[in-house]
Amino acid sequence: MKPLRWLLGAALIPAAVLAADGTPLKGDIYIRGAFNGWGLDNVMAWRGNGIYQADILVNPGYHAFKVGSRDWGAEWVIDPAASVAVEPGKPYRMDTHPGPEDYLFVKQTSTWRFTVDVSDPARPVLRVARVEGPAPVSGADPHAGHTAVSMDFSTWDGKRETARFSADDPAAPLRTYTQSTTMQLRDPGPQHVRYRESASLPRVRSGNLAFDGLFALAGAEMLQDSVHEIRDGNYNGNAPIPCECFETGEKWHYVWTRDLSYAADLGLAMLDPRRVRNSLEFKLSGWRPGVTRAPHVAGGSDGLQVVQDTGSGGSWPVSTDRVTWAYAAEKVLLTLPPAERAAFARTALTALSNTIDNDRLAAFDKATGLYTGEESFLDWRDQTYAAWIPADLASMASAKALSTNVGHYKALTLAAQLAREQGDMSRAGRYESWARELKQSINRRLWLNDAGMYSSLTAGHFDGAPMHKFDWLGQALAIDTGVAGAARARSIVASYPHGPMGAPVIWPQQQGMPVYHNRAIWPFVTAYGLRAAARTGNVSVADAAYATLMRGAALNLSNMENLEWLSGQPLLLDEQHPSLIGPVISSRRQLWSVGAYLGMVIEDIFGVHLAANGIEIKPFITARLRRDAFGESSLATLDNLRIRGKALTVRLHLPRAEQGNGYYRVALIALDGQPARAAIAWQELKDGSTIDVEFGPLVAGEQAIRRVNANPYEEDRAVFAPREPQIARVERTPAGKPVLHIADGGNTDARYNVYRDGKLVAAAIASAAWTGDRTGATGCYAVEAVYADTNNYSHHGIPRCIGAAIEVPVTDARVSSNVPRATPSQRFPQPHIQDWGSFGDRFAVDAIRIGQTGQYAVQVRYHNSANQVNLGISGGVKWLALKDASGRVVAGGVVQLPHARIEKADTPTVYSTPIAATLTPGSYRLELSDFYNMSYLRSNSGFSAAGGVEGPSNRFDIYGVRLLRVR
């Protein structure tokens, strides 16, 4: 990030001339925060006398915000070392360096005035104060003159909330609905919404106006998200980018790979495959002009591949879930007409092959057979990883996540299928083999018998153990893709915890974190859980999912991004703990939530599933759904479902409503009045075809569900994990056994498990010290805490390795580089090679002496300040090679050097991901050369920060190298 001087110009403007010369700043400044989606809606107006001002209507909550320029080139916070909760009216001197967000606590929807005084441009001052005014008027009954039906819902605290629905003309072919709610909405605005059915989308007639209306709402929001251009403050200077695409939501105006892909897979690809295809192609990119391809980079010369979006540590390969692109691509390929399909299939195979082959180099761990990388979609490190991980993103990069590995499995299976179709049998065989081996590794390495689920997350390097951490998306995707066999699928669905409002996206919850991924329901994840429940015949879990999705859309007047999981609230306002309020941000008409609702109705209720040669009819109608959604109606109709240019009608002939639980098996399917199989080929369907479904008697199905509950305002150990403990220090007994001194992390009444090299070696330790059971010169230890009464586990603490390390600083005479060492400064006092890594830069260390045979971890000690730890495309990604005295490469591969935290004073150094090397005594040479990161792609040439408009950025500061003996 550039400092304030960039925004003001080459010279700071004296305060004395501000009033006479007008606006002092070269560019606009903005208030950007959770209340406006971190967008550019609130530019600060110049008021003279050094004052910039913006009045913003803010809803209740604890809102993160910053003052910044359009492209984040300038960023002002109160304290770059820590967040500050602002007090109304109090002046705060702002720092002109990037830093953590500041916060504003608002109890009631009201207008707040943000004032920045730049009379002294080097020391801007912020004030935030409430603007007094009349309370909003509720207005007249929006249903006046029309008959309204209600949906009533119990709240977590014993009250009731109601959603009401009416139609201007219930008999009209295309209805216009009004929907209202008694629940306090998250964002300012009326307590009702109006929307109209579209002739281009399917319609539902079920005898229940509310059920029909909620489907129409999802369709209307899909059309709102269908745009002709997209924009984002970080791209193209926030100028519009032409694209017949899907934007991500009301507060997210760009196309993001994983959001689009899951939304398309859940429902959008069936309804608008061409727009999904356009959006998918927007997320492909080749090399930008002038990029020199490094020798080890795989794939074709154009480099066409899937784009990993900006994010943790500087994007790929810290995050590798760009492969989720395959979920959407597979659905589009099932839906496009043959000629369009053939063209897209060729593009998809090229992009997937380049993506797969480079991921294999940068993110595949041969020792475990798993891919590394951040959990898919759970991309806010503090929310779902150990507290120490944001300061050591290399350890997150080297961990393995269930959801991400299942995404790689999907990419491999789709690429193999496309290669086989296109006659490339060699490539098809290779990808089929990799997919088969990956499936085996997931089942061998991540399944936890005691939990009846997969571990969603392993610890990183020097540990690697699968942890008792679980996420609903990863579990559901393992079932949906067939990675989980039938028995394991049933176990997962029965074992994953559900609160009174539905399933949280992670389990257990993390202490000290606000609601976002932590402590939250995300409708699209619930929809994948519904798929898993239907696949396994689990009635209880399916009913919970149906209720979650309908309640969320009904009471919020929109398909929201997320909700607090125990209360179902769009904003849990906790005045006693304002820093824990959330969800921190939640957007209306969030694309994957819209796709989730549409898919729930079309696929799960009406049972229309895309298949290789047509469609399959597999409705999952439970007794509770029959009673609650359809009442006394005997017929539910889905009309105008257009697939491959043919308009279809599906009619469910509903059985008599019954008490009890279970689901109705399909007894008869008819196509245009003639008996048909569940699988209907494309050639059997005509424009205007009608599919009738009749049901047999109620069957029990699976009923098991794990229920949990707690007060949403308390960090109850029933639903929360302990905080991770740490190894404070390691000593040795006279016999050479290690003694670990454990710092409990602030837990009460927890027990501790000890791991050595990723294997459990001691369980349920109560004391603060543990003595190892063997002597030895090597071993990496880590500890976790467990609540014995709830069996909730913490993350693992930082691993401590007791093996000897060879450290070579850049001041060592054996180090050579074309980039000279930098002059130490107060902030960076240690000797280092600054800004190393442009293509052609050289770095080597000669004559590294190894005295003992063993397994070594080879790492670079570095600092990467190109961007913050949660942003950007400029994570360091290089190729490290270790050569013996004869020049033979004995170990090599990609090392990652993610963005690292920037401290106000002495900035600490960190270590890269390691390269494993089995070494014998002798002399070795280490060489570092180029690979690539996402800044090398053409699509990022308009990115505003490092790696964008000024050219690729794959640079960092080198402080030295380390060879650590781990075995």
From TrEMBL:
InterPro entries per the UniProt record, alphabetical: 6-hairpin_glycosidase_sf, 6hp_glycosidase-like_sf, Ig-like_fold, Ig_E-set, MGH1-like_GH
Mannosylglycerate hydrolase MGH1-like glycoside hydrolase domain residues: 254-551
Isomerase as UniProt keyword: no
Signal peptide interval: 1-19
UniProt entry tagged with the keyword NADP: no
SUPFAM superfamilies (UniProt xref): E set domains, Six-hairpin glycosidases
Taxonomy, superkingdom: Bacteria
UniProt KW keywords: Signal
Protein name (Swiss-Prot/TrEMBL): Esterase
